[in-house]
Each structure stands twice: as structure tokens, then as C-alpha cells.
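User: Sequence recovery, please. Input:
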């Protein structure tokens, strides 16, 4: 059973993020209720084109099952994206929104009920193998390997290049991509799924 991704606007939630971001990130971007609702309509159309194939492929390549019937994705003007509650900001390029959504959905797949326990040996292997790396780097090694597979099989490699470039300024994320590139995404996926 594949989950349905429901894009949602919550005025209270969005306002809290907007206030926080204006205070701490020195941004002056402001989005009205209508701006966000219109954006949701736009990205819903983009997501629907590939939703089923991406969710199926994530489940298949990670050897883990989706457990939730619905996953709400809150869309706010500005925030740092995260997986639970699934929350994403507005990106000027809808394809970037989709790429970040997939990244967060992989986190979500890893943390679905019983999935962490099913993959416990895999996680132990990665934490032991890359013990000198930060926790953030270690958890993004299999994630990025799966994401690279999605870019190569379903999306395109220009988007993979963009993802790697966008991660270059964040040390832990950049290091995870360096390891995936060096060790090979197929090898990393195999190391994850065979355990």
C-alpha cells in the first residue's frame, strides 16, 4: 500500500515559521495564504505526475514498506525542511520542491513503524563503518545513495548535480555525498538492503 501525500496549508503553523525565519534567517520573503495555496496547487500537479512510481521505487530500492496511508506535507513560506511533521518551504523551482520532498520521504520511510527495527543491522553497519563521521553524515549515506538511484532511474542527473552542489556548503551533507560518490550508490544500497 502506497501512502497518499496530502499537501496542506496551516495558517498558524505557517505564521509561526514566517515569524521565526524573519527573526533568525534575515529574510524578508513574505507569503500570503493565497500565495501558499496557489503554490500547493502547482506542486500537487507536478508531484502527481510521478508520485506512484517514486513511492514504489523508494519502497523497492530500500527494501522497506510504507506503513502510513496518508502523509501530510505542510507547505510554509520559509523553513528548514524536515520529515516529521513533513514540512517544506516554497522553492521558486517546483522541481527543487519535489527533490527535497523525496529526500524527506526517504527519512520518513526509514522511520516508519517497525522499519527502523527491520533495518537495525543495516544502521549498525553504517554507524560502525563510518564511526569517525558525524551522525548526520552517517544517516545521509544510505539516504543519498537511494536518492541518487531515484535521480538516475526516474528524474535526471542534472537534478542530482544540483543536489550535490546545494549540499556543498553544509559539511555533514557534503561529506555524505562525497562518500556516496566514492563508494558508489549501488554498493551502498546493497550494503544497506542485504543486512
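Assistant: Recovered sequence (195 residues):
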Amino acid at each position: 500500500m502506497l501512502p497518499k501525500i496530502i499537501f496542506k496549508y496551516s495558517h498558524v503553523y505557517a505564521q509561526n515559521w514566517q515569524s521565526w525565519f524573519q527573526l533568525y534567517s534575515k529574510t524578508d520573503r513574505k507569503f500570503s495564504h493565497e500565495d501558499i495555496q496557489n503554490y500547493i496547487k502547482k506542486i500537487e500537479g507536478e508531484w502527481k505526475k510521478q508520485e506512484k512510481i517514486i513511492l514504489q521505487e523508494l519502497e523497492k530500492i530500500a527494501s522497506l514498506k510504507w506503513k502510513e496511508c496518508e502523509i501530510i506535507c505542510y507547505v510554509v513560506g520559509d523553513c528548514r525542511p524536515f520529515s516529521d511533521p513533513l514540512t517544506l518551504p516554497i522553492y521558486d523551482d517546483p522541481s527543487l520542491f519535489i527533490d527535497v520532498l523525496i529526500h524527506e520521504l526517504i527519512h520518513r520511510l526509514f522511520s516508519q513503524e517497525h522499519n527502523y527495527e527491520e533495518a537495525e543491522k543495516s544502521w549498525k553497519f553504517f554507524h560502525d563503518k563510518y564511526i569517525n563521521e558525524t551522525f548526520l553524515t552517517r544517516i545521509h549515506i544510505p539516504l543519498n545513495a537511494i536518492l541518487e538511484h531515484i535521480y538516475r532511474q526516474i528524474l535526471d542527473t542534472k537534478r542530482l548535480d544540483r543536489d550535490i552542489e546545494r549540499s556543498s556548503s553544509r559539511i555533514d551533507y557534503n561529506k555524505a555525498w562525497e562518500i556516496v560518490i566514492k563508494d558508489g550508490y549501488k554498493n551502498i544500497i546493497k550494503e544497506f538492503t542485504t543486512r
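The mean pLDDT is 94.
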